[in-house]
Design goal:
By secondary structure, the protein is of the alpha/beta class. The protein contains 11 helices and 10 strands. The structure holds pyridoxal-5'-phosphate (PLP).
């Protein structure tokens, strides 16, 4: 696969490390656990959206855009990474933040990613849950065009066939690293939301005939819906790469048993997973995505889904900035 055919900017710190998690592997007594550190992509706290933004911003520049518009939840990591790259590119950035959780916690509404968005001088607006976010972005784009601007709309999570190329690239990178390390990967597990990460990853792995299955842990939609979203985007990504139909429906697996009360709503298992990764590996997960993804991984190991001797890679998609919006979900003792 030849990704240089597509417009791209290079600002991510790549390759991200692929490292063993010896302490957690020993503690859980199951498979050998590895971690692909996409929390270390380098852009203002990093995370998986940085890989997608390399291709999305490349496309925006190729189209002469001077303004970026995107949307996400209040504590969106995608919004924060978009605001960061827009600042560096000296472009205006409009973020429409959807109040998906209804939380009144000031930390959730003003700290974490929200504070970082403000540091990057993004223009923030909010709207209630279940707003038609695509329509809201279109309306904003129209009003900016009327003022002579050339806005570029990035969909939520950067998840379209262009953004997914970032994870086609990650698939190629991970396989190359594993080959160099003589590591036979049996499965890659990660949190899946707007679907671009899993769609790109599966497309890259299928397109290079790596024969490595991907297991998504859903954070919002029910299993069937999540798998359909990922599959539809994978098909579009295949079209974009000229390998139409390469990904099959059975290549897409998502498990939405760890969503709990809803998107961004804390669960006990998520809190336990964040505590375990911090205490045993000094790795910071996040409450919305990677914490729930790791909860799924831990639970599936306890149920024997992944077995001793297998090599399972947890793709760390980032998001730790959101921890600062969620202090109240943790039962910390008062230290004073
Ligand atoms: C966006 C995000 C995800 C999910 O990736 P999608 O491509 O939206 O499915 C996972 N983890 C973190 C930390 C994220 O910000």
């Amino acid at each position: 696969m030849h990704l240089s055919r597509f417009p791209r900017l290079h600002f991510a710190h790549l390759d991200t490390p692929l490292e063993p998690m010896k302490n957690i592997s020993k503690y859980l007594g199951g498979p050998n656990l590895w971690i692909k550190r996409d929390d270390c992509t380098g852009l203002a706290g990093g995370g998986n959206k940085t890989r997608k933004l390399e291709f999305l911003m490349g496309d925006a520049i190729a189209k002469g855009a001077d303004t970026i518009i995107t949307q996400g939840a209040t504590q969106s990591n995608h919004a924060r990474q978009t605001a960061a790259i827009a600042a560096k590119m000296e472009m205006d950035c409009y973020l429409i933040l959807e109040d998906r959780t209804g939380s009144k916690d000031p930390a959730y509404n003003y700290n974490g990613n929200v504070m970082l968005n403000q540091l990057f001088n993004a223009k923030l607006s909010t709207c209630p849950a279940n707003t038609d976010m695509n329509a809201a972005m279109e309306d904003l784009a129209e009003s900016l065009r009327a003022k002579g601007k050339n806005p570029y709309i990035i969909p939520g999570g950067g998840s379209n066939a262009i953004g997914a190329l970032g994870y086609v690239n990650a698939a190629i990178e991970t396989v190359r690293q594993a080959n160099q390390m003589d590591l036979k990967i049996d499965c890659i597990v990660h949190a899946t939301g707007s679907a671009g990460t899993q769609a790109g990853l599966v497309t890259g792995l299928v397109g290079t005939n790596a024969q490595i299955p991907v297991y998504g842990i859903g954070v919002r939609a029910p299993k069937q819906k999540q798998e359909e979203n990922v599959y539809n985007l994978a098909l579009k990504t295949c079209d974009h790469l000229n390998i139409s139909g390469a990904v099959k429906r059975e290549d897409i697996v998502a498990n939405s048993d760890y969503v709990g009360g809803g998107y961004g709503v804390p669960t006990d298992g998520m809190i336990e997973a964040i505590n375990m990764f911090a205490a045993k590996e000094s790795i910071l997960l996040d409450p919305v995505y990677s914490g729930k993804g790791a909860h799924g991984l831990i639970d599936l190991i306890s149920k024997g889904h992944f077995k001793a001797g297998e090599n399972i890679v947890f793709l760390h998609t980032g998001g730790a900035a959101a921890l600062h919006g969620y202090r109240s979900a943790f039962n910390f003792a008062d230290y004073r």
